[in-house]
Write a structure and sequence with these properties.
The protein has about 325 residues and is mainly beta. Helix content is about 10%, strand content about 60%.
Length: about 325
């Protein structure tokens, strides 16, 4: 790794950094004027020839390997740091810092093991943007990526979120839940990609859940500044929804609460029965919970102020003993 750091004094002090290695190159330039540090115009730019091996290590999923492509570019711009504000408060004043970061990654390719067979794995070009130009107004994050296995669509991940009321009047992180608006979605996901995670539990996701799965989470803020959270899950055998409202650091079920329905529960139950008991295919499992209250404390859920009740139903599942009795 080669690195060079230069500093020039005077009325306008300048700081420049250059970094270079076999895989990474980057530069950053800053100017300090009137106790405010700003980027010098071009911002902070770093690029890597390939981050595929790094992504593989960070994922840490057995059987998933990305080894080609993945040229990446990171650009941090509109950076400003009020040095006086940082030093004048007992606690860090986050209002003293602002900026915007963009990360762009070119397609990556590799392999994935599914049922002990190797398949090609490819990602689309992807981008991630984090905007904290004024943290008093809020911050936002947006990004997307698609996967393909053996040139077949295997999932589309997208994130678009904005959060406000992040800091209090001192610039410290506000206690409680910030106001959130946006969506996180995983659509058309190939469930077999997650099989290694549940293998030890005896589950077969492509059969027990279905070959494809959609998971969508949305957040919105109403006229009364209440945060609405909605979750939807859908596959061939599993459907579910959940609606919550967050107000005054309390999460409550809303509308129809939580609903889950699972088809052909017999085939799954039978797999975990002793050899002397079998379960016929068919039947269903349902879960409903329309009276949920979760009070949030400083370290998590305050169970002394929380309530939770649910109904679990099992319908049409037939069990037989070794002598044929039901």
């Amino acid at each position: 790794v080669d690195a060079e750091l230069t500093f020039e004094g005077g009325a306008s002090r300048e700081l420049r950094l250059y970094v270079s290695s076999d895989n990474v190159r980057g530069s950053a330039g800053f100017v300090i004027e009137d106790t405010v540090l700003r980027d010098s115009g071009s911002g902070v730019r770093f690029e890597a020839d390939s981050i595929a091996p790094l992504v593989t290590r960070q994922l840490g999923i057995e059987g998933v390997r990305l080894d080609q492509g993945g040229r990446a570019e990171l650009w941090v711009r509109d950076v400003a740091v009020d040095l006086n504000r940082l030093q004048s408060e007992a606690e860090t004043d986050l209002r003293a810092v602002c900026g915007k970061a963009e990360l762009r990654i070119e397609p990556m390719t590799g392999t994935v093991l599914i049922a002990d067979e190797s398949h090609t794995l490819a990602t689309s070009a992807s981008a991630l943007t984090v905007d904290v130009l004024n943290i008093e107004d809020g911050a936002s994050i947006a990004g997307s990526m698609s996967l393909r296995v053996d040139d077949q669509a295997a999932g589309d991940l997208s994130v678009s979120l904005r959060a406000s009321e992040l800091v209090d009047e001192t610039g410290a992180f506000r206690v409680g839940v910030p106001r959130i608006d946006g969506e996180v979605a995983l659509r058309n996901a190939m469930t077999s990609l997650a099989q290694p995670m549940v293998q030890s539990a005896g589950l077969v996701l492509s059969e027990d859940i279905g070959p494809r799965l959609d998971i969508i989470a949305t957040a919105s803020v109403d006229a009364e500044s209440r945060i609405g959270l909605a979750f939807d899950v859908k596959s061939d055998r599993l459907t579910g929804s959940a609606d919550f409202v967050v107000a005054d650091d309390v999460i409550r079920s809303d509308e129809q609460g939580v609903k889950l329905a699972y088809l052909n529960a017999g085939s799954l139950i039978g797999r975990f029965m002793p050899e002397t008991i079998s379960a016929a295919d068919g039947g269903g499992l349902s879960l409903t919970a329309d009276d949920i209250t979760l009070a949030l404390g400083e370290t998590g859920i305050d169970w002394s102020r929380s309530e939770l009740s649910a109904n679990l139903g099992l319908l049409g599942v037939r069990l037989r003993g070794s002598a044929g009795e039901q």
